[in-house]
Every structure is written in C-alpha cells, then in structure tokens.
Amino acid sequence: MAKYYILRSMSNVLQQQHVGMASSIDIMYNLMEMFGQQNRSVRKIGIKGLVSTKIMEGTPVRDHVLKMMDYLNELKVLGAMLDGESQVNMVLASLPPSCNDFVMNYYMNKLSMTLTELLNHLQSTEDLQEKNKKFSFLVEANVVSTPKPKGKGKRKGKRPGF
User: Fold this and answer.
1) Which residue has the higher pLDDT, 58 or 160?
2) How far apart (Å, rounded) are the C-alpha atoms in residues 112 and 98?
3) Distance from C-alpha of 159 to C-alpha of 161, rounded to nearest angstrom
4) ∠ CA 57-116-71 to the nearest 5 degrees?
5) What distance in Å separates the CA atoms of residue 147 and residue 119, rounded to the nearest whole number?
6) At residue 21, does pLDDT exceed 70?
7) Where are the domains positioned within the chain?
8) Among 1, 78, 11, which residue's Cα sits nearest to residue 47?
9) For residues 36-59, average pLDDT
C-alpha cells in the first residue's frame, strides 16, 4: 500500500523509474541515492546564508529575525540539527551594535527564550528605543534658550570681594 502512495505522489518520470521496484523501502533508498547529495549542497547554501546574514542599522528587527527564522526552518527541513539555544545565539550574533545592551542583558541574566519569544522581546525593545528617541527629540525641540548679553554692560575690572 505504501509503495502505491509513494508512486502516486511522484512525477511521471520518477514513477516510471520506480514502478518495477519490489517495496517502498527500495524506492526510498533509491530516492535518497538520487537526491541526497542535492540535499547536502542545498543545506550548505542555507547555512552560508544564515551565517552571513547581518542586520543593517535602522532595519526593523522583526524583518531580520523572521528572515533568520526562515533560514533556520529551511535547514531543519533539510536535516540540519540545531538546538533552540544555538538558534537564539545565531540570531543574537547577527544583531547590530545598537542591540549590544540587549544581548549583554540576555547573557548576563542567563535568559532562555524560544525564537518567537526572542522576536517579541527584541521588537518591544526596538519600540521603546523609538519612543525614547521621539521623546528626546520633543524635549530638545521644546527647550528654550535665553540669549546671552553680547558684551554691553560688562564690567572690566574685578568684582569687589574677589
């Protein structure tokens, strides 16, 4: 029964190559021989993309972490074995210098998060930083400076008592 399900899910070309095989196990071994090497090269490309991905300063952290999660999911499907802690460490290593306080806090407090939790914390931190920037801009814009006298009325000598 499994043999027929496997054959029905294949393209016509692959069906013709495997129809004469005795069992589903034989079909699976033959498919592994045919496509196993391609899987390895695709996994290599995925790992290279994951390791080389760095976020640019000013880019939304959500987009970056989702891209990293996509690479990690693709690698998982291709058979790469990365535990959750390693995945979080890879994402943290790809963050820009402006996130150094967050990363240091993560390691100093020995936090443990899933990728989804990390994404939510990073996004909250980014939102707070944006609010602080807007607030400091508003405060700076509202500061009124008093003009200093231009020299008229200054005394030339020392003040008495000094």
Assistant:
1) 58
2) 21
3) 6
4) 65
5) 48
6) yes
7) 2-141
8) 78
9) 78
The token pair at 27 is 């079909």
Residue 144: exposure state from Cβ atoms within 10 A (0-12, 13-18, ≥19): exposed
Question: Which residue shows structure tokens 């008093």?
Answer: 146
Output 71-78 pairs: Cβ under 8 A, ≥24 positions apart: 71/46, 72/115, 74/46, 75/43, 75/46, 75/47, 75/50, 78/39, 78/42, 78/43, 78/46
DSSP structure string for the chain: -HHHHHHHTS-HHHHHHHTT-SSHHHHHHHHHHHHHHHHHHHHHHHHHHHHH--PPTTS-HHHHHHHHHHHHHHHHHTT----HHHHHHHHHHTS-GGGHHHHHHHHHTT----HHHHHHHHHHHHHHHHHHHHHHHHHHHH--PPPPP-STT--SSPPTT-
Closest CA to 68 of 89, 44, 42, 97: 89
Query: What are the tens digits of pLDDT across the range 31-47?
Result: 777 776 666 777 788 88
Please give the radius of gyration of the chain, using alpha carbons only, rounded to the nearest integer: 30
Residue 15 pLDDT exceeds 80: no
